[in-house]
Design brief:
Strand order of the largest sheet: 1-2
Radius of gyration: 21 Å
Strand content: 5-15%
Helix content: 40-55%
Distance between the termini: 23 Å
Number of domains: 2
Largest sheet: 2 strands, antiparallel
Shape: elongated
Number of strands: 2
Order of helices and strands: HHHHEHE
Length: 130
């Protein structure tokens, strides 16, 4: 399913004004969200026809944080468009894998081991939007 032009025109006035060098228009962005929610795919597997996945993700995150997405979904439902946006993936802000060199080296040096190998640790910070 895609948002038709007439459905988009009904909610167009609620959307933030696009400024600057915009690579993806709001209509394409909303269709990308529909695609993600229907196919339950990840951001990175979004087809190229919607633009860069990072652009879509950043706008999704901004609109979610500012409450724009909630207003848009409510207005679409008032106009008879039923899209299950609850299937959108949770926002994972960052996932880093780094060696903790300093901490492991200090512990090993204190224990008398001068050839200590750093251990890898995974740091995940996630924020889920409902």
């Amino acid at each position: 399913m895609k948002l038709t032009q007439s459905q988009y025109n009904k909610i167009k006035s609620l959307l933030p004004t696009q400024r600057g060098n915009v690579q993806v228009d709001n209509h394409t962005f909303l269709n990308a969200l529909v695609y993600i929610s229907e196919n339950r795919c990840t951001w990175r597997t979004l087809p190229k026809q919607f633009g860069k996945w990072a652009t879509i993700y950043k706008r999704y995150r901004r609109w979610s944080e500012n409450g724009v997405l909630k207003i848009v979904i409510t207005e679409l439902r008032k106009n008879g468009v039923e899209i299950d946006f609850s299937a959108l993936p949770a926002i994972v802000e960052s996932m880093k894998v780094r060696p903790k060199k300093k901490a492991q080296t200090r512990l090993s040096a204190a224990a008398g081991n001068t050839k200590a190998k750093p251990r890898l640790s995974v740091q995940i910070r996630a924020r889920v939007k409902k």
